[in-house]
Amino acid sequence: MKLYEYEAKQIFEKFGLSVPKEIGIIENISDLENLTLSFPIMIKAMVLIGGRGKAGGIKKADNISEASDICSKMFDLIIHGYAIKKLLLEEAVSVAHEIYLSIATDPATFDLVIVVSASGGVDIEEVAINQPEEIWKKTLRDNPKTLSEEISKEAADFLVGRNSELSSVKESLSTTIMALFSAFQQSEAKICEINPLIVTNDNQLIAADAKFVLDDNSLYRQAPLLKSIGIDTRSKRHDVSEQTKYEAQAYIIGFPFLDLLDNPESFQKEQDKLYVGLVPGGAGYGIFSIDEIVNVGNRYFDGKVIPINFMDSGGGPSLSKVADMFHILMDHPATDLIITSRFGGISSCDIFIQGLIMALRDRYISKRRMIPVFGRMVGTDLAAARTFLDKAKRESPEPLKDLHIVVGNQKIMADIIKDGIEYGFRTKKQKETGGN
Q1: Is 1 domain-assigned?
Q2: Positive/negative CA dihedral, 227, 229, 230, 231
Q3: Which terminus, N or C, of the chain has the lesser number of Cβ atoms within 10 Å?
């Protein structure tokens, strides 16, 4: 779960970190009239994605006229494909120096990693590439509950070594690093980041920005903390500004769906590549399908095959849910081909094929976009599924002409995937050449 900046700052304060004074959160321009404003102020777009500053989502206002103009323009702004629903207004603070500070869990090793830099206020990735000597990094493999003074002082010493003017706040830097580490561990976070940590003209340390990502698996334990900042974990809060259109649709319907493409609504496809949507039978098979698509694509198709999603039907999906899974991928602008597999255990092959055929028939009747489907089904209720599929093909061959389902396990999925991709490339080429 990602937190908005103002939510993250509320947690920071609970652990003794200083933040700018919050003036208010507004959701429309008229809300400005209800706030007591003392200028200068900072106006920040609340979106759960990086790069706000470069995109015009962070501005300073020196008077009410500027504030009104900035807020009005921000509400019309789209940042990396995401609309702005609310703005944070807070006091502007003086800036003498800017520092980068973060604590995160390494997703590969699950070790904790502390990163600091005296070059804050900019993209840390750019600093890492162009000035790696400006970054101090410490890996903690024993997952300590608290950070030792030795390590926090080592980080502070590095910062002072890169900028001697920070010597006057060296002790405060050490304390701040320890406080952020406590916030990270006690809230069971995956990432805590301050960029920038501002050193003011009077040597105060202020977290001017805040990034906070919590581990979803720990939310039930963190319910008291989240409740204190106005979040009810029972609502399974998943903010729409971090979801794509298709992820949001799947969330409402009730099954996990993740886009593997950035901003799919405005995604520009490369014409020489084939984009494959996946409807697997479960989470494990969904992960395998992604890997196998890439593996087959690299082995036989020069790496020109791109999986576009992860999906999990869950145990025993309803007929309508199965249909919706295919509808989402056929509505997805990137999809050239759908690969599906139903290994019936808890789930029924019969319900699966009925849901898939229902989706294809509905789309054909309503003249919606049709996508070729290749796949296999084996397992529970296979005999009934085979009977339904054979009958459906006789009764309505036109809607099902691009449905290629192997019944039983006489053919391995890797070969079905390869056949599907070959067909997908042929079909795509025919469309580009006008069917010749």
Answers
A1: no
A2: negative
A3: C
Compute the average pLDDT of residues 310-324.
88
φ/ψ bin of 4: left (φ > 0), alpha (ψ from -120 to 50), beta (otherwise): beta
Helix (H) or strand (E) holding 153: helix 149-162
- The values of phi and psi at residue 425, to 5°, are -65, -40
Tell me the two tokens of residue 51. Answer: 């790069």
CA distance 340 to 355: 13
Count of domains in the chain?
A: 3
Query: Is there a single domain that holds both residue 84 and residue 101?
Result: no
Q: Which 3 state secondary structure label does DSSP give 236?
A: coil
CA 18/CA 346 separation, integer angstroms:
52
Q: Dump pLDDT digits (tens) for 298-314.
A: 999 999 999 999 998 87
Cis link prior to 196 (omega < 30° from 0)?
yes
Residue 191: per-residue pLDDT:
95
The conformation of residue 303, written as its DSSP 8-state character, comes to T
Domain hosting 277: range is 243-432
- The pair of three-digit structure tokens given for residue 96, joined into one six-digit string: 């003498």
From 201, 235, 269, the end of a domain falls on 235
> Which CATH number characterizes residue 343's domain?
3.40.50.261
Contact 310, 344 (CB under 8 A): no
Instruction: Give me 214's structure tokens.
Output: 């919590």
**d(Cα 93, Cα 198) in Å, to the nearest integer?**
8
Q: Are 208 and 196 in contact (CB under 8 A)?
A: yes
Q: What is the CATH number of the domain that holds 33?
A: 3.30.1490.20
pTM for the full model?
0.64
The tens digit of pLDDT for each residue in 363-380 reads 999 999 999 999 999 988
Asked which of 61, 91, 121 is the last residue of a domain, the reply is 91
